[in-house]
Amino acid sequence: MLNLKGKNGYLRALEPDDLDFLYEVENNTGIWEISGTTAPYSKHLLQLYLENAHKDIYEAKQLRLCICNTSDKAVGLIDLFDFDPHNHRAGIGIVILEEKDRNKGLGLEALQLLENYAFNGLHLRQLYANVLSDNEASLHLFQKLGFSMVGEKKDWVLQNNEYKGEILFQKINK
């Protein structure tokens, strides 16, 4: 049995009553550069997304889970995306919405839980992550989890008339 619960919190499927939280996350312009978002999402569109969130990862090619703290409050989202079962790989991404909930071990634990699910439940061989070169917290987080920096895409993201690089991390399940 795969465990999606840790000492700091747990991961769970999206629920219909997550609409307001999802709306807040997706429309927070402070994290748009991470997700590549360029325009706000309507509640209607997010409601349609939630109605289809039950789809199997093999059908949807992605899995999005809520990161909840020990008080059962959703504080972030974690994703497997670009799921490729033929080549046994997927991308992984994480966001903790509010600054006050960061640097408390919840993000690290959430990544460990999803990594365990990906490697032992989905039998993936590798995970990869794309991290902006100036995102010190995420760079540290993925390195701490044993992801290797395998490349840099220079001037990859344009924000506020400034180009930023993106670091590609990879972890292979041996």
TrEMBL record:
Signal peptide: none annotated. Coiled coil: none annotated. Residues 9-170 form the N-acetyltransferase domain. PROSITE patterns: GNAT. Pfam families: Acetyltransf_3 (PF13302). InterPro entries: Acyl_CoA_acyltransferase, GNAT_dom. This is GNAT family N-acetyltransferase. It comes from Sediminicola luteus.
